[in-house]
Amino acid sequence: MVYFILKRLVQSVFVMLAVAFLAFSLFRFVGDPISQMTGVETTVADQERLREDLGLNDPFVVQFYRFTTDMLQGDFGFSYRTRQPVADMIADRIPATLELGVVALIISLIVGIPAGVYTALRPRGVLTQGILLTTLVGVSIPTFVIGIMLIFIFGVQLGWLPTFGRNGTVQIGGWESSLFTVQGWRSLILPAVTLGVYQLTLTMRLVRAEMMEVMRSDYIRFGMARGVPMGRLHYRHALANTMVPVITIIGLQFGGVIAFSIVTESVFQWPGMGLLFLESIRFVDIPVMGVYLVVIAFFFVLVNLIVDLLYVAIDPRLRVKDL
Amino acid sequence: MLVIKDLAVKFPSRFGDVTAIADVDMEIRPGEIHGLVGESGAGKSTVGAAVIGLLSQPGYIAGGEITLGETDLRALSPEAAHRIRGDRISMIFQDPQTSLNPLMTIEDQLVETIQAHSDATHSQAVTRAVDLLEEIGIKNAASRIKAYPHQFSGGMRQRVVIALAICTDPELIIADEPTTALDVAVQSQVLALIQRLARERQIAFMLITHDIGVIAQVADRVTVMRKGRVMETGETQQVLGAPDHPYTQALMDAVPPLDVKIDRFRVPEEAPIAGEGPTGNVAEAWLLEGQRSEMLGLTLDHLTVQFAAPRTSLFRTPAPYVALDDVSLTVRPGTIMGLVGESGSGKSTLAKAITGLVSPTSGTMQLGGDDLPYGKTRGRRHPSRQLIQMVFQDPYSSLNSRHTIADILEEPLWFYGFVSDARERRRLAAAMLELVGMAPEAIDKYPHQFSGGQRQRVAVARALLARPRFLICDEPTSALDVSIQAEILNLLKDLQSTFGLSVLFISHNLSVVRQMADDTAVLRAGRIEEVGPTEDLYEAPQADYTRELLALTPVMPKAWRRAG
Amino acid sequence: ETLRWASTTDPQTMDPHAVNSAPVLSFLNNIYEGLVRRGKDMSIEPSLATSWEPLEGENGWRFTLREGVTFQDGSAFTAEDVLFSYQRASDEAADVRSWFAPVTDVRVVDEFTIDFVTNAPNPLFPDSIANFMILDKDWAEGNDAALPARDAENFATMNVNGTGPFTLAGRDPGVRTVLVPHEGWWDEAEHNVTEGVFTPIGNAATGLAALLSGEIDFIQPIPLQDVAQVEGREGFRVLEGEETRVIMFGFGHEHDTLLYSTDVTDVNPFQDPRVRLAAAHALDIDSIDRVLFRGKIEAASQLVPAGISGYSEANSDRPAYDPDRARALLAEAGYPDGFSFGLKCTNDRYINDEALCRAAASMFAAVGLNAELSTGPVRDYWPQLREDDFDMYLLGWSPGTFDMEHPIRFLMHSQDDEARLGSWNFGNYSNARVDELLPMIQQEIDPAARQAMIDEVVAITQEEVAYIPLYTQPLIWAAKDNVDLTQRADNFFMLRWVTVN
Amino acid sequence: MRDWLKRYEPVWLFVHSPAAIVAAVIAIAIIFGAVFAPWIAQVDPYDLSSFSLFDGLLPPVWEDGANPKYLLGTDDQGRDMISSILYGARLSLVIGISALTIAAVLGVGLGLAAGFYGGRFDAVVMRIADVQLALPAILTALLIDGIARGVLPASVQQDVRVAVLTLAIALSLWVNFARTARASTFVQMQKEYVQAAIMMGQRPVRIMFVHILPNILGPLLVIMTVDLASAILLEATLSFLGIGLPADSPSLGTLIRIGMQFLLSGEWWILWIPTLFLVALVVSINILGDFLRDVFNPRLR
Ligand SMILES: Nc1ncnc2c1ncn2[C@@H]1O[C@H](COP(=O)(O)OP(=O)(O)OP(=O)(O)O)[C@@H](O)[C@H]1O
Ligand SMILES: Nc1ncnc2c1ncn2[C@@H]1O[C@H](COP(=O)(O)OP(=O)(O)OP(=O)(O)O)[C@@H](O)[C@H]1O
Ligand SMILES: [Mg+2]
Ligand SMILES: [Mg+2]
Where are the transmembrane segments (chain D) (predicted)? Predict the structure, then answer.
């Protein structure tokens, strides 16, 4: 187990380095940070001096080396745009994105799993067909359109929920959370739903497919043959067995959720990392973009690791006796 | 007690209803073990499933009666039927590997079953479960009950399955091939358990199997099915010993005996005889023409194969798993060497080492006096890749289902550079099909359009088209019915003698090996227990293990066999 | 009363000298003050200086400072603070230092008098420093913020201490910034705001939704096409005005060949004024106004809109929409079948910039000028322009000093890196007479003489079609009905003019 | 009759699945319209001189103030909506299909090889896949876009936008194919026909592509349809974030992005008609994908 985790961690470092490298090589093409940092009247000479100061004239390898070594020493640099430490800026935004992502995920699970089970058990029902078609339409509308529609329906027309931002946050330790106030939840719900729609459909379809597969398996038939109550068979036996593939895909998708939160955050002005990242692209704020990507890669790697550990928790066959 | 009358089951399909069984009559009395035999697809499982009400979708009972005691099983509502299941009827499936929920402990599964049918409290249920496990022969049941299925061996798992079936004291248990996945030792224990339960608890068993030996050994009465209909039913002794129905007679003839060697298997129906057709001769001639080289023997010397066990610790390299341990074996040129042993003993590993699919850790292999390099170092163009061919166990997966028979058969011809003309290749492939007893027109079809036996013929044809000198058959008939098995074995025998092939014949079925092999080796946990001429080995086994195997193999009483 | 308002961009820093960008200067004008300030009509009025007059005997200005002004932390405002702020703002680390390019010396005369000495007569100097904000010397030095932050943040990035009407009560960059009134402000408060909460909302539709749902009271700007929607709703109103930004097309005067043409590759037809004029005649500003801008733009004849000082009344005609004349001019210039060329545009910089360019390309095409349109975000637009990578390009210009001299200096004078002139004249339009007139305009004190010179420049550039000025960009704000506010032409939002009813 | 049906089982299934028929009709109609756009559409939205701002913002015919010449109205540039949509669908499909092809070739190739060789090669491929997954599609798009800008001469940059976008989408989709192909290959590797081929000494490339590939096509085909839908949507999203196609050569995604500006302004058709079109296309492709999944599911045969 320890060996396994260590092995994964070592691999993770490589994944992150590779992401950093790729990220870094792309920044040079995003645009020119200097022209974004300076005003109309700044002279060319001043711009050149700034460029030199920031080390932007150094060869790419040197810049990358500096970026990685600094980062390994815990120095994440300063934003070109706000001059604040990048580490602080990102750290400030992590709770917002994570809470959004996790709540979206949870919504997608608590709706998607029962819907998947239902549609699997009644494959020909009218409701099943309805659910399948609705979700299909749901994922066929681009996220940004869905987001804006939700804002106008629930925020403007009905006036039930806030249209933007993240309100009602509470500081808990170093973590700014919106999960502890009604206000916070009201702000969270629309973006989380928007972000969760795709995930929900995916979860539902996956659970449905796996469930239909598992329901045909011998142990379910044997369970029926010995008269185990149906409810127990469906939820205790069948559902648990669908979880391994479902967790894999959901784990993989969580990375996608975090990445796609860029769109959702921008639509809802949700102050998370994605929004910060978009702003950073606009201002060619290279240090922020770099750290953002590495953080994303880190989350991705972390989620993968958690998924692997969850397998072990779910499936006793994977538990290795000797550590 | 269980009475089935005129039962018919249909499966609606995309192309209309298919009648799986019809006019099935059967009666099972309390405490009786009722055998249900027949070839694959005969409808045996369908009868069982219809009785317990678990026909696989979208099958339905089209007519007939099923009554259990006073209850008309067909008249029950789904809820009532579900209540009856477990309570009065239970079922055991073939594969103990897949019959248990891998994510729940044995205890959970037993307790939930007991509680589903009684008011027992949790602790009462646990007590009962433990008692039950003890009763069916699981030692230390109190502690082992906390285990997950994967922590049990196959035999123990099948016992647990039986425990689950009997824990609610049903009147009838339907056992669908309950021992097919087990090796003989475990099989005999499970069969003994079933017999004991029938005697002591008066549980009736419907024992579904295609193994006539098993039926002969344990069944009180037997029903023979074919193509969805009952051919014959009655006392076991009468049906098997003096069959009325010609089909039953033919079936009995195809069962290979363990105790004597017969020349050829009797085939139930007139199967086409190999090599009869005019084009078949072409193929035969072509093969004989390739016989320039003499017969090749194979010598294995101190062969050891180890597999790395998965690494789980940072500091310890785990001890490798020894699949073959110091195996020395000689296949004489032009003879058949039989290799028997229970599942997991390393038989297939041996075949793979010879064919180069796995690399031995040490030892040498020689084919006709030439060293055979280890798998990793054997070049793609090494002559042995042509000289050694293999017929696999599973005809379903050994043929690429996306290639036509022509593609499959022509591949060795061009690959080994025998025939460069495409038309000639096709002609030869068709001829070879005929040689193995199939219509040459079959060449444009796909494998899934054939039955298992036909596919296995194609597999044999493919092996022959490589002009092999050494043929490995890895359980070539274990996926087939007895009757088809007989055909294939006859075919293999004929071909072997015609073309002077040396053969390594792998099987876990001792009866089959006795009929096929000149010499036999017994493998156990990667070690050779005994090797010698087949007749000697079967008549006077030296090793205890061999004796045990022979004793436990279910056989028909000699008297029931018609004179060969 | 609490006022919540939103705009597209967050001020990236609270340091008034670090960045010369509109969002920052606009926001900080609520907190800091300069020696002079602009009134509701953009006119210059006293602020921290009560009066100013030209120096005697040398070039420059003397400012008399207001007495009794205190910073938000309570310390007093004196000439030392002005000197300190000048030094800070003209440091290399400051992005606003170009304002002080003409300044050669600053002298504290006494506690409330300070002299700015310039290298030449500079009548516009007071106008040009309206956004030069004064920091407290002791506060800045005491908090290690004596210079604007360069690559790392410093105290002034996140904290303020100005003399202005409001002070910072909370800041969460990119999320919300809260202002509260500065109790000790020297001027009389016109507003009744007790708390101002600013939120950046990048997405226009979201911002509008926030306004309509009542979560914010005011937003700048809203998309043109939504004006009718907002006006149609009970309880909301739209403020429309003209911004000072003129949108124009520029040419690659300097290139000898077209870069993006598929047919004319040996010459640059845009070097011929007739071709440039043809392009100007091809554009139907009225249709653009009606369809794309819903009647909210004002056609422009020159690089500043009417009303800006120096605007040339004498040259207020722009080339009319006349495709036939355009075709004739092209034929005359030797391109009867037209030619193709590359047109570069931004797509996130000006209002409807992309749609404008598409419409323009379509209009050009109608007379045979086949534009290969390429649009992109502004983040890599300026570098492309600086590298001369265009045949024709879109540019919007807002005169920072609200005087015609500004665009002449940046856009019409030939490129001259030494003298820092023509630095945004990407196509390097060059005319000796214009170059000659610029320093004279800069130094001329007499308004009439100065205007005559400006008129001459405008006439020349119109004659030569140096640029095609298109229109003045509209300024569209939306607010709840109960909010009274003043829309200033520089798009600055001043909290001190807001009353919430 | 029966034999015929059995042989053409998918056809039979298809004929008996109303959803699949409707989906196919919609998809084919859209594809037909897209392919023949130059002949069907009354204006060429790429030809700037073929439309005029003068006709801008006209509503569909059933609304007041419409011009019957423009059935579904015009956009803010005066472009006929139908024509733009047909051309847009054409571009979206071109991008989607080419991205998918690239992704499939790359992903299936790598996945097959990873499954076939296993061990270290497999580990490397899967780590590369991880890196790819950790890079959001928008970043991949920026990267490719940036490199193209850096490498290609300015004059062709606008022309390669489509290629750039295609490549970016392809890169963010290949992992799906690689993972599926790899997993299916692992299963096939256990099959005896593969063992037989290896034993014969056939070349690995032949084993992978001639023997294994046809057997894993089923699941791959399903991914194809699902990913075609996501490719089209991804293109729309990238457009929204400003890294998509220029507005004068619009894809469906770009049309929606432009239409977003008119969400509230009353000119609903500029947004909703292309959106409806996109949804119809994506939903019908997905339904066809589900249908294929059923056809290929051996359990249902
Ligand atoms: N789910 C199903 N759908 C369609 N037909 C079926 C289904 N299950 C069984 N059948 C048909 O019923 C017939 C009997 O099948 P059944 O499984 O009962 O045979 P069996 O005797 O148990 O064979 P085996 O020894 O292979 O288990 C087969 O020919 C098959 O075609
Ligand atoms: N690639 C491998 N890696 C690790 N262990 C293996 C591998 N292949 C086989 N083994 C192990 O080697 C042992 C022998 O396997 P083998 O397949 O040779 O048995 P067998 O006698 O053919 O059994 P069966 O009758 O079930 O086919 C088994 O315990 C198996 O788990
Ligand atoms: Mg069966
Ligand atoms: Mg084996």
Answer: 12-41, 91-117, 129-148, 160-178, 209-234, 269-292
pLDDT class for D7, splitting at 50, 70, 90? low
ipTM, interface predicted TM-score of the complex: 0.80
Roughly what angle, to the nearest 10 degrees, separates helices C273-282 and C353-366? 110
Best residue among B18, B36, B46, B227 to mutate for probing ligand 1, ranked by most atoms within 8 Å of CB? B46
Cβ–Cβ below 8 Å for C153 and A78 = yes
Q: d(Cα C383, Cα C389) in Å, to the nearest integer? A: 9
How far, rounded to the nearest angstrom, does the alpha carbon of residue A57 sit from its chain's CA centroid?
35
β-pairing, B204-208 vs B172-176, is parallel
Chain D contact for A9, CB < 8 A? Answer: no
Instruction: Provide the domain count of chain A.
Output: 2
Residue A283 CA to residue A295 CA, distance in Å, equals 20
Q: Residue A47: how many CB atoms within 10 A of its CB?
A: 18
Ligand 2 binding pocket includes B345 (Cβ within 6 Å): yes
Say if residue D298 is preceded by a cis peptide, omega within 30 of 0: no
For residue A208, is it within any domain?
yes
Question: Are A142 and D237 inside 8 Å of each other by CB?
Answer: yes
Pocket of ligand 1 contains residue B243 by CB under 6 Å: no
> CA-to-CA distance for C72 and C459, rounded, in angstroms?
49
Matching fold, domains B1-60+175-253 and B280-310+330-554: yes
User: Which residues are paired to B84 by β-bridges?
Assistant: none
Q: Tell me the residue type at B175.
A: A
Alpha-carbon gap, residue B397 to D272, rounded angstroms: 52
Q: Which CATH class is domain B280-310+330-554?
A: alpha beta
- Partners of C250 in the β-ladder: C393, C467
| Residue A41 and residue A104 in one domain | no
Q: State residue D209 phi and psi, 5-degree precision.
A: -90, -30
Ligand 2 within 6 A of B309 CB? Answer: no
Find the domain containing D158 and state its range: 3-300
pTM: 0.82
Residues in chain C: 501
Q: Do B15 and D215 touch (CB under 8 A)?
A: no
Is residue A14 domain-resident?
Answer: no
Report which protein residue has its CA nearest ligand 2's atom 3. Answer: B307
Determine the Cα–Cα distance for residues C184 and C70; give it in Å rounded to an integer.
7
Closest-CA residue, ligand 2 atom 24, reads: B343
> Which candidate from C229, C361, C371 shows the least CB-CB separation from D265?
C229
Q: CB under 8 Å to B70, separation ≥6 — which residues?
A: none
Inspect the interface and report whether the beta carbons of A224 and B54 lie closer than 8 Å. Answer: yes
What is the CATH architecture assignment of B1-60+175-253? 3-Layer(aba) Sandwich (3.40)
Tell me which residue range forms the domain holding A295: 89-318
The dihedral sign for the CA sequence C259, C264, C267, C273: negative
Q: Ligand 1, atom 24: nearest CA belongs to which residue? A: B40
Which ligand lies nearest to the CA atom of residue D118 in the structure? 2
What are the pLDDT tens digits along chain B (564 aa)? 888 888 999 888 766 788 888 899 999 998 899 999 888 788 888 898 888 888 877 788 888 888 888 888 888 888 888 888 888 888 888 777 788 888 888 888 888 888 888 888 888 888 888 888 888 777 888 888 888 888 887 778 888 888 888 888 888 999 988 887 777 888 888 888 889 889 988 999 999 988 888 888 889 999 999 888 898 898 988 888 888 888 888 888 888 888 777 777 766 554 444 445 556 677 777 777 766 567 788 899 999 998 877 665 556 667 788 888 899 999 998 899 999 988 888 888 999 999 988 889 999 998 888 888 887 888 888 888 888 999 988 888 888 888 888 999 999 988 888 888 888 889 889 888 888 888 888 888 888 778 788 888 899 899 988 888 899 998 888 777 788 888 888 888 888 888 888 999 998 888 889 888 999 999 988 899 999 999 899 888 999 999 988 888 887 777 776 544
